Amino acid sequence: MEQVINHSVQYQPRLKFGGFFAPYHHIDGNPTLQIRRDLDLVKRLDDLGFDEAWFGEHHSAGFEIIASPELMVAAAAQRTHRIRLGTGVNSVPFHNPLILADRLNQLDHMTMGRVMAGFGPGQLPSDVHMLGMENSWMRDRMNEAVEVIVALLRGETVTRKTDWFDLRDARLQLGSYTPEGIEMTVTSVFTPTGATLAGQQGIGILSVAAADRKAQTKLVDNWQAHERAAAQSGRTSRREKWRVLGILHLADSREQARKDVEWGIRRYQRMHEDLYGGLFDWSSDAEAVDHWIKKGLGSWGSPIIGTPEDAIEAIEHLLQMTGGFGTFLVNSHHAAPWPATQHSWDLFAEYVMPHFQGVNRAREASATWVRQNNDALISSRMQSIAQANEKFQRAAGEAHEVRSAS
User: Fold this and answer.
1) Is 69 in the same domain as 125?
2) Is residue 185 part of a domain?
């Protein structure tokens, strides 16, 4: 039998996936249960094979109810086994950089190296106001704090005085849990500020608004700013350290996916009206979903509402548009009922992740080889069956002759 033996499998870098928990929770729900469901969902992501989960920091407006991402990381670490856990992100101007670096380093030991650190200037103007700060200060203060935190987490001693902190011979009393240290990243949205800072410090980028069509147009520009800053600072820009955040809901059909999010979309109307101004005069849930898909909705941008095939197409478009990134993060929104939300994550893990991670290439190659050789394989099998039957009949005939002779 002539066989075609060619099981070569082309290797491609493995795209990673994670969940991003701002979180968004409708304001008429039970906050205790909402937080517990976030933790339950992270455990589910761990079981499903997701790589990462990130937790935000907010202090006002009532919808994004995680005040301490570090507490969520600690609680999630006790419920999971392998998924990495990040602060997504710490609003670093709100914290003394030594104290924040010390907490992150302790967390890394407690989770045995699963912590990632995300840094940003603080998203909500109401948080800035309550702390007696000015929005115009935030990006400069973020730069100052990140420069110090990165140095501390790399084991350096820092003496630095600014108009909001004064560090003298500051150092961490615990060394890093892993030799390479905690992975760090900076948020990037519309301006190149975060991407440039990340390049200067040699850390990753977290593009938190890739679902926003206006922000999508800035992705390439911000990456180029990151590359320039890294080169000028003698650092290396690495696409595998670039994380891109999108929002989606999947179901077994597009019609079902739309029906799922119609359940809860107008519960979030007040959040977007409060945060971004204006009123949404929607006459129906269906109209609200149409607006969300076609025009976007504040920080949520425009979602993928559909099937796993729709998610694959959208992510492939992002990869092609940007030139490639390392991790796609799914923004958790809970606009759908809890069972439908869980099913969406299940579908993503079952059908979307394998497409990009190539986990079925060997299976596909094996199936193709069998199909190409099927005629010869079946012929050989049928021939062996015929030979076995002939052998059995011959042996039975010989046994009959022996009995007859006796």
Assistant:
1) yes
2) yes
Question: What's the rounded Cα separation, in Å, for the pair 134 and 287?
Answer: 37
Could you tell me if 329 and 393 lie in one domain? no
For residues 332 and 390, membership in a common domain is answered with no
List the one residue out of 51, 54, 50 whose CA is nearest residue 38: 54
Confidence category of residue 11, pLDDT binned at 50, 70, 90: very low
* CATH number (domain holding residue 233): 3.20.20.30
Exposure string for 16-36, b = 16+ CB within 10 A, e = fewer: bbbbbbbbbbbeeeeeeebbe
Give me the pLDDT at residue 189, please. 87
pLDDT band at 108 (very low <50, low <70, confident <90, very high): very high
Beta-carbon contacts of 13 under 8 Å, excluding residues fewer than 6 positions away, are: 240, 324, 326
pLDDT at residue number 5: 37
Q: Is 385 exposed, middle or buried (0-12, 13-18, 19+ CB in 10 A)?
A: exposed
DSSP state of 135: G
Task: Quote the pTM value.
Answer: 0.91
Q: Per-residue confidence at 406, pLDDT binned at 50, 70, 90?
A: low
